[in-house]
Amino acid sequence: MLLRIKGLIPSDKLTIVRGILDSADFIDGKLSAGKEAVSVKNNAELPQNHPEMARLNNIVMGLLVNHPTYQYGVLPHRIAAPFYARYTPGNQYGYHVDDPIMGQADRYRTDVSITVFLNGPDEYEGGDLTLMTATGEVKHKLPAGDAILYPSGSLHQVAPVTKGSRLVAVTWAQSMVRDPAQRELLYNLSQARDELLGSEPESEVTQKISTTYINLVRMWAEI
Predict the structure, then answer these.
(1) What structural domains does the chain harbor?
(2) Cβ–Cβ < 8 Å for 35, 9
(3) Most distant CA pair in the chain: distance in Å?
(4) Nearby residues of 194 by Cβ (< 8 Å), 6 or more positions away
(5) Residues 6+ apart with CB under 8 A from 13
(6) Backbone angles phi, psi at 158, to 5 degrees
(7) Each residue's pLDDT tens digit in the chain (223 positions)?
């Protein structure tokens, strides 16, 4: 299941984020790459000990983890600290699948990957986030402030940047519901449930839908 969050980060917050990133010194992105990705990863990342990292995370992650699409689509159990990546001409991230387990002392399973676009598509050429699906390649190059959520087991790449600079935040989550098909069913059911709770909160149908959603989460959740 692919989910897009439009306008996750408003323009005033994006200005703060861009101000920090535009003046920051980045390091080689290979330093954080996993065993498979290290051979295909070519970008730069903000050091995790950067003095403004907490401020960045308060904005980006604060907005992300509280967004209802994230909450219902991910059903998060564990949330990873993000990486802030920059792609300049010649940079790319070849086709790969995200490592199944990440983290050091506090390890987590990667179920859902999230990319938050921090600058606009008019600021660089190339750099499409390309996901391989059952129907072929699907490319994403979203406006600044938008985010996309996709299964971490998806084969995906960032196409070569040929001009300008691409800025993104990338993070992962371990879901309470491991199976992506079950998460998709729960997400769709949650949308129907919320619509009915808003329009017909006392109806028998609403109560049945709500009860079914709650008990499916109870049946499938692992905590």
Answers:
(1) 3-175 (2.60.120.620), 180-220 (no CATH)
(2) no
(3) 58
(4) none
(5) 59, 63
(6) -110, 115
(7) 999 999 999 999 999 999 999 999 999 998 887 777 788 999 999 999 999 999 999 999 999 999 999 999 999 999 999 999 999 999 999 999 999 999 888 899 999 999 999 999 999 999 999 999 888 899 999 999 999 999 999 999 999 999 999 999 999 999 999 999 999 999 999 999 999 999 999 999 999 999 999 999 999 999 9
